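for the record, two folds in this file. i put them one after another cuz i was lazy. first one right below, seq on top, structure tokens after. the second one comes after a little note so u can tell where it starts
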Amino acid sequence: MASSPTSEQRAPALSVRDLRKTYDNGVQALKGVSLDVQPGDFYALLGPNGAGKSTLIGIVSSLVNKSAGEVRVFGVDIATDRDAAMRLIGLVPQELNFNMFEKPLDILVNYAGFYGIPRAEAVPRAEEELKRAQLWDKADKMSRTLSGGMKRRLMIARAMMTRPRLLILDEPTAGVDIEIRRGMWKTLREINAAGTTIILTTHYLEEAENLCRHLAIIDKGTIVEQGPMKALLAKLDVEGFLFDVDGGIPATLPDIAGASLTAADDHTLDLEMPRAMDLNRVFAALDAAGIRVRSMRTKSNRLEELFVRLTGQQDAAQGKAA
């Protein structure tokens, strides 16, 4: 007979209950935040600047003291058993906080030593993590010579040296180009698929929609929305399409009641319409106007629209959730 799961195994990877933080200057950074992240999840935490994301991550990782509330990591209360809780967490902060004059291999091995991992175990583990981060060929190079994207990947490799069950990533792809970012997505998916729960904060809404299965949006110290990514996006009653058309765009576009049709460029039309609208109505109007559609694609990013609705942050229209 299989053994029953322990309470730690049954517990959420992260459980936050009525978490509050008031700083000495009177600023209320968190006003009763509650959320659960289940084991194995890939979870996005989004919000504008000053929303409370950094404070929440700081409390969970034991870098900031809470004013009230409860935080448990796989059932372990960070207030009563901090060391046990921290052994379960790997943190990748926004700032590059390693010695630029050390070699990547040494950075990882020394980091493991801080957690009591013997060198004989740390060296092969470091090789494994550097290979996963595509940095093995840089193992003996000075870290300051690495590119920005390589330094970000080194931060993730370092955090994985302790084999954390919960990995917290605070804007891990900030400042790197899209090609490098997508390569990092692949690495993060592999880490998550291997069983590590991941919590991600990001400036890039496209990143959250591509990687994460659940999300919470925090604004002014409170959670304004949370749940499965697909379910939250399904709440949006508007969808958008881009039409590639043959020939040029006419000066006057057909008026389609309830929808918005504009020219994105000389050969692309941008359509916003209610989800309940029949797309055949649109095609009929375009055909009557002599506009021939060659192909169509769904617009992104739906998460951007949800974010703007909930927080009113117009800078999200540029693809950012600060």
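(here's the note) second protein begins now
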Amino acid sequence: MEKTTNSVSKTVVITGANRGIGLAMVAIYALRGDHVIALCRQSSPKLAALAHHNVDIVEGVDVATEAGIETMLSAINGRTVDILINNAGILRDENLHNLNLQTIEAQFQVNAVAPLRVCHALLSHLTSGSKIALITSRMGSIADNGSGGRYGYRMSKAALNAAGVSLAKDLTADNIAVGIYHPGYVQTDMVNFNGDITSDVAASRIVNLIDELTLEESGVFKHSNGQVLPW
């Protein structure tokens, strides 16, 4: 990937930045000249290789914990955040006959509560024109549920979608737009690399959507291919 430069460099914060879609977005923003704060619980060799591209790698950030949020805030250290991408998430598998309440609760904490916690913690770092992206899933769509199961993941992503709409409404007066994005069926370890598009393709699509995001489309639930998805 060749490096491209923006006329105005942005500060981009990405959670879950050590692999998959998060890592691919770090690379896109860094190589086009933005300053990336890559938050993760533990770095990876591929993320470490981007450190010389104006990427600050911040380990020990479990966004579902108070300690993780404090580590994030210490790393950002008062800087203005132009783009905040809530990408960190987990997928577990429950069905009606194997209802694991612990994994359901864990998915709620990471997939739904943590992004809201991150947004709240960084409110004072956002400014007019800043953008927030929530990486969700069409599995959180009630209308699109054709197969059942996956209770914790579906419920947590539906909750995240609801939070995204409220954020969009609450932040309109501050000129902060919120994008709610389903990346597609992506070849990541979350799905044992069984997806139909690569992380690079999904990340490129999402970055383009964030670039194009305006207040008029704040709070809209979109597939990374641009399709508006049903709630």
